[in-house]
Design brief:
Number of domains: 1
CATH topology: Transcription Regulator spoIIAA
Number of helices: 4
Order of helices and strands: EEHEHEHEH
Largest sheet: 5 strands, mixed
Structural class: alpha/beta
Radius of gyration: 13 Å
CATH class: Alpha Beta
Strand content: 25-35%
């Protein structure tokens, strides 16, 4: 299974929607695309939507942590949303819930960042 990556800029927030599997085969592509979008756009915050993500391994955790460090170094925040039970458990076991904000969906994620309409 491959991975589809959709990037959307909304105000000063980069919304990243992943569909498929985020693993060691796809992690570098996600990392690169997100880094480029943050560096070239006026991005203060990142929302990662995992609504269509079917699998994630430790490589995916590395992508999340790396982008978290990148955006917080710029004074921004990162929110993850639409977690399926397997991804939720992986994030919980990794300890990322201690630093990441978790929301039910994109709308609530935008509201939490105070960039919603």
């Amino acid at each position: 299974m491959s991975l589809q990556i959709e990037l959307e800029h909304y105000r000063q927030t980069l919304i990243v929607r992943l569909q498929g599997e985020l693993d060691h085969h796809t992690a570098d592509t996600v990392k690169t695309r997100m880094e480029e979008a943050v560096m070239r756009g006026n991005v203060n915050h990142i929302i990662m939507s995992f609504k269509e993500l079917t699998f994630m391994d430790s490589s995916g955790l590395g992508v999340i942590l790396g982008r978290y460090k990148q955006i917080t170094a710029r004074g921004g925040k990162m929110v993850v949303c639409d977690l399926n039970p397997a991804v939720h458990r992986l994030l919980e076991m990794s300890g990322l819930f201690k630093i990441l904000s978790i929301q039910d969906n994109e709308s609530k994620a935008l509201q939490s960042l105070e960039v919603a309409l």
